[in-house]
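Course assignment 3, question 2. Fill in each field.
Student: A.L.
Task: Predict the tertiary structure for the chain below.
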Amino acid sequence: MSWYDIQAAALVPRYEAVQPAALHGWWRDLLPASPGAVLDIGAGSGRDAAWLATLGHAVVAAEPSSAMRQQGQRLHPDHRIRWTADALPELAGLLQSGLSFDAVLLSAVWQHVPPLQRARAFRKICTLLKPGGLLVLTLRQGPAPAGSGMHPVSLGEVEALARDHGLMPVRQMALPDQQGRPEVSWTGVALRLPDDGTGALPLLRHVILNDAKSTTYKLGLLRALLRAADGAAGWPSPRARRRLCCRSACWR
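Answer field:
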């Protein structure tokens, strides 16, 4: 039996007392304007899944704790929410389902993934994202309750994983603890998987940024351009694009 199964009766009222609109207001505008498919990993009491459903989205709520899952189904009986027992780092059922999502939320979850399993977990999350999809994580700083299975997290680690998988940083925010614990604080991170209109760009970015053949000058050039684009505030101006096109023609 997990710590969350044992603590469910005490945790659920505390979770439900937090207003999700206030908790997630820092990234609310990044969600699809039209109804989409959203995955809530570590859905807990279903508070956030229910909020996302009221915004019109179809939500898959993944919660491995049976006690938390049962409470969530009781408190939020919404036909737009589909519950599953899937958990990181495997997410086996979701990966086998063939589903993909416009947004994936990990709210107060990443600290439960053991450090040695995070690269694998991140790769599987990215597999579930649609091109153009949004990934939102909150990172916990502060002492962990005894027996909760929490591990230290860092923004730098998440940023490195994002670069390795071709995700673009969209927003970062320092957040207070909504339960009023002075010793606990949070960092919110929003990332997006680029979309070239064909669905091929995420794969190409991953190959270009991680291929071991660093001696090929064309691959090196592409890698440099992608890393420069990762750090740019926006797309090049039309004049800059024309200059790049002219230079590309000279190199061919």
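Instructor remarks: Residues 217-231 form the longest helix (15 residues). Residues 247-252 have pLDDT under 50 and may be disordered.
Grade: pending
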